[in-house]
């Protein structure tokens, strides 16, 4: 191995097998209560919650530890309205013209459509960008690696951190999403990855029954 600076792994906490079993079960029970909803309340959520969850996302593993992500948090009602307007324009084209029937059929059980009021109602829109170039230090312009994998993992941690903190989310991916660079003032070297709508669910929020159906363990795994 080439010489590199090391430090003891001293933040690791050893757990007994019994504790591991219990913690795994507790965590499963908690994440299994997460649902994606399209109905949000406008009740405010403390900014510190979002900041801490973003810090959690920023701990994600990434290609060469380049951390190829950027999160723009939109709380301004004016800018949220701009995002809604642009997203609905794209979505109208998607639902009316672009989407093949097979895709529309796949979405039917989820009840999605071109109306995206949640983009204005929810207190925060977190726009996740992936970076083609960057590096661990400010100003780095090195090539990034495994960008989608890295940003996907960070986004997964962000969704889980928000859920754990008591914040509901909706992953929204208008296509194409280039309009987000302009609205968020991000460079062309960054690509919008998705919008995470975040806030309290509306008091009368619903979730599609089809979204509750998760494949059982024997359908998502095998052991050799
Ligand atoms: N972007 C569209 C369509 C859409 C696509 C998939 I795949 C979804 O899981 C949900 C929606 C929209 O946001 O409505």
TrEMBL record:
UniProt keyword annotation of Transcription present: no
Keywords: Flavoprotein, FMN, Oxidoreductase
Pfam families: Nitroreductase
Cross-referenced InterPro entries: Nitroreductase, Nitroreductase-like, Nitroreductase/BluB
Positions of the Nitroreductase domain: 33-200
Gene3D superfamilies named among the record's database cross-references: NADH Oxidase (3.40.109.10)
Domain of life: Bacteria
Single GO term (MF): oxidoreductase activity
Protein name: Nitroreductase family protein
Organism of provenance: Ensifer adhaerens (Sinorhizobium morelense)
